[in-house]
Amino acid sequence: xxxxxxxxxxxxxxxxxxxxxxxxxxxxxxxxxxxxxxxxxxxxxxxxxxxxxxxxxxxxxxxxxxxxxxxxxxxxxxxxxxxxxxxxxxxxxxxxxxxxxxxxxxxxxxxxxxxxxxxxxxxxxxxxxxxxxxxxxxxxxxxxxxxxxxxxxxxxxxxxxx
Length: 162
Prior knowledge:
The protein is 71% helix and 0% strand. The chain is mainly α. It has a domain at 72-162: Tetratricopeptide repeat domain (Serine Threonine Protein Phosphatase 5, Tetratricopeptide repeat), CATH 1.25.40.10. Helix 2 packs antiparallel against helix 3 (71-88).
């Protein structure tokens, strides 16, 4: 009897913790942003170091003047940047794992799909490379900078397939 009760308590705790976290996150999203400084008070200077150019570009696209980029977006961009370095170093498996994490954080970032296609192409798997190239095209087709890169990648995949 005691082990059933212990198991039931353990199960309730394992269910209660995620529910509590969800409730706290939801409550935080509804909470007021705080009291703005008095008009005569100057804002504190920002002491952040500059972000990489690719990250700055994505931040400009993602944020409006009144909001800051979501932490998930920033984490996704950092993972994408690291994965790109891994691809350049020929470490496709590690890059794929990293890009899958980035994709889970920001599934609308077409660059993740582009680099996933590059990693699979590096491994020689043109089927997977083609799949992720199609997803990259869906997300980047209106981007004049990235569309030619995605189309070039598509040509390289076709050449490897033939």
